[in-house]
Design brief:
Blueprint: H1 2-20, E1 50-59, E2 62-81, E3 87-91, E4 110-112, E5 117-124, E6 127-132, H2 138-141, E7 144-150, H3 153-161
Parallel strand pairs: 2-7
Antiparallel strand pairs: 1-2, 2-5, 3-4, 3-6, 6-7
Bound molecules: copper (II) ion.
């Protein structure tokens, strides 16, 4: 009796772990996500966390993170378009990145016309994510980069103090 209960519990635990763990498709190096049992958001495997803010400059044909740090959860993206043509930001494989929908943008989370600023929200798990501009030809021309989403605020703060965030990492990219 005692033995079979233990087996049952082990089986249930394994099923729970299997159901709650996943590395999102398209993530470069995302950590497996294990949602707290019974926690809101567990069912749809959504990133839980405080989130954060990123400001990203974009133009022909580059991205550069100019401010902010991202912790897993809802991340508010401010996209500053410094050139004349339209650009947008899509995170490949994001679990939920469709707060911005318009025209042929598909899964872009934010878009901005030339010399304009757009805002959007991406829900991302911890890890490194590929971001692209999905306007045809722009990714191939150079609008592909990565951002890091930290698992905790402590981890993010440590990266800030060490000067190891994504801010200005690509500042040397051509801007004309
Ligand atoms: Cu573009």
């Amino acid at each position: 009796m005692r033995r079979s209960s233990a087996v049952l519990i082990a089986t249930a635990a394994a099923a729970l772990l299997a159901g709650c763990s996943s590395v999102p498709e398209g993530a470069v190096d995302a950590q497996a996500f294990e949602c707290p049992v019974g926690e809101e958001g567990c069912d749809d495997n959504r990133p839980l966390g405080p989130g954060g803010e990123l400001e990203i400059e974009m133009g022909n044909f580059f991205f550069n993170v100019t401010d902010g740090v991202a912790v897993t959860g809802d991340i508010e993206i401010t996209a500053v378009n410094v050139q004349d043509g339209y650009h947008n930001i899509e995170f490949l494989g994001a679990a939920d990145g469709s707060s911005f929908m318009g025209g042929s943008d598909g899964n872009a989370v934010v878009g901005a016309d030339g010399n304009d600023v757009g805002t959007g929200t991406a829900a991302l798990f911890p890890g490194e994510w590929t971001m692209i501009c999905n306007v045809p030809g722009h990714r191939a021309a150079g609008m592909e980069s990565t951002i890091t989403v930290y698992a905790t605020e402590e981890e993010a703060q440590a990266a800030v103090e060490a000067g190891e965030t994504d801010v200005d990492r690509d500042a040397e990219m051509p801007q004309s």
